[in-house]
Amino acid sequence: MNNTCTLCHNQTEIYSQPGALGQPLHLCPNCELIFVASDLWPTADSERIRYLQHNNSPDESGYLSFLNRAVAPTLTFLQPKMTAIDYGCGPGPAIEVLLKEHNISCVNYDPIFFPEWPLETFDVIFATECIEHFHKPEASFRLMLSLLKPGGILALMTHPYEDDTDFTKWYYTKDETHVSFYHKKTFSFIASYFNLELLVVPEKRVYIFRKK
Question: Which CATH architecture has domain 13-211?
Fold first, then answer.
């Protein structure tokens, strides 16, 4: 089993707590990513089945309200007629509905449900409740950011862990498709590593960056 960090490639250690499913976790002391080892990563088929169980649809007002926690503060940095991509949109893409109201076009991409790789680059990338599913965050971030124009905006939404998070009970570790868990310090590392400027953290689960 490889104990190398999936984000910064430093050596890791076994975390003091397992996840809520009993899965062993690894902690990287360099970037503070906590992740599930590769031998426990779900298959694409099991991921598909799990994602289809989510009650996420553009017809669900509650889901739109949830996504708007990331979209609304990002709009401060956007202008009409910009182009966006909903990266990791899942089977029921909804951000396009919110952006349409502001005359911003949105392409949907998901490796399982919308796998056609875009041929253009975008002014803004939304990755909402997506990056916790990254098996290899370093490679996945690099691939995702290849779609972002210089000066473009990256809006991330995930639930970071905190220093006192009890992983044995934390709901985020009860989903087997969640394999990467980020700390606020991890996002500082991500900004530096990928040459991003952290613009604002409007709430604890939303981080908005600009690509330098």
Answer: 3-Layer(aba) Sandwich (3.40)
